[in-house]
């Protein structure tokens, strides 16, 4: 694993985190510092018939004109079959060098070459496959930022990932559909109807969240979720607390199960993500006696930067 | 428990199963035989501003004119707070007589009196409340039809119920959001997008369903569900099999958990419901070594009939 400071002599890096619903990018100096940022709603599901190449030209033409020698890398769903250029999944265990070797480059005519980061695939012990795309870059970025080469990384979100790293390589991971499940139930189920519209969260999670975590200790969501309704109907939980309670049930079940796959892992667990979600996870992790340390999601840019350097080093060999 | 044949000397019964999305009714002879049937899409969520009383008059005026002395009972969501007249939940354990005593009657002016069947509520050992409304009538109908006074009854559906009966009383039950969960995931999640539109089921469940059941043996749906996506993406399960696989995962998890609450129960488990759903459940129950016997959902009318007789007997005392 190379640390950004070891390789600060190369050129600029344009790091693009191009996901399903949005895009974030950074123009990074040769020493890894972020000089400029772009945030755009042009996620791959919102291209609406526009070519990804045209979106790219419009967003990045100016940076590239200023820094024609920059290394340009994109991670996330843009490298999937539904994206711009498919970068096939690399198999776990996979280290930084494997990921760099799996980069797939495409020429944007007359402008630049763009490298797409591969996702990772794994087959669990029970023969079931699992995949990630985008989170691998965050994890390697976290390793580079922290200067560590092992640990458990939790990346909450639509499809929450738990990732085990040993010797600088991702040796295992598990996906949980936690965020999507919450969203489906909130927006489309009979449970959502009992919850006030758009109640802003704000502040720390409360007692209702803890109650949900507590109940998640055994049994199954399929049963526990119905208690959101029965508590609401019988007046045992106030309507504005029901979403918090449901969140505790779902995140609690994720943590309960996930920790059984990572029992040998060192403490603390590293939590990568947005502030409000991270604070819910910290609370659920604590409920299950797991210590955690929070990292912000700037680690994606750090990951892309380190990957660009590793790629350059591989090219020189 | 009275058997219909003990009390065949009273008048006709109009039995109404009035649920969320539809309504079914039977005009029953004094001996319990179904003479005529009505099926209508006028479930309580489709009233669209019409008064329930007006729907009732339009559907049942003619039957009542012919049989002015008939006892009229309605079970299901029509007796909920969102329905016509609320019949408060009776607490478990509850027997047939408790249910009959909990009937709430309303006068439809100049036409008839209608009795609404109460739902049941329970507090589980972990302090969590649970409720049912409509299924209690099916279970008591099944008891009357089978001439038994104990057993475990499984009522698959949007909110699947497992009900334990001892000495003719419902002593416990658990709800699982199985049907709604399947529907949410099929219609609104990223998993549904991989499944062909409106693939007709038809025939027996296949290997993909069994594979889902197998995987449900440990762990959590939150994780297993993502394998619907990874199997689809990696070509390990064909698109037209993915819904069956997902169904096996969800129903399997229900059965895995539910049976732990009913370990002392006699065999077979009684399965009440539609043919195609019943065949999925029979397969999942067999996977978990539970013997089952299937009952059709005509048991609702048998339950309302027996309840009408019990009510008349209570009135005479």
UniProtKB/TrEMBL annotation, chains A, B:
GO molecular function, one term: 2-dehydro-3-deoxygalactonokinase activity
Biological source species: Ancylobacter novellus (strain ATCC 8093 / DSM 506 / JCM 20403 / CCM 1077 / IAM 12100 / NBRC 12443 / NCIMB 10456) (Starkeya novella)
Matching Pfam families: DGOK (PF05035)
GO biological process, one term: D-galactonate catabolic process
EC number, as in UniProt: 2.7.1.58
Keywords assigned: Transferase
Alphabetized InterPro entries for the sequence: DGOK (IPR007729), DGOK_C (IPR042257), DGOK_N (IPR042258)
Signal peptide: none
Protein's UniProt keywords contain Transferase: yes
Name listed for the protein in its UniProt record: 2-dehydro-3-deoxygalactonokinase
CDD domains: ASKHA_NBD_KDGal-kinase
The keyword Repeat belongs to this UniProt entry's keyword annotation: no
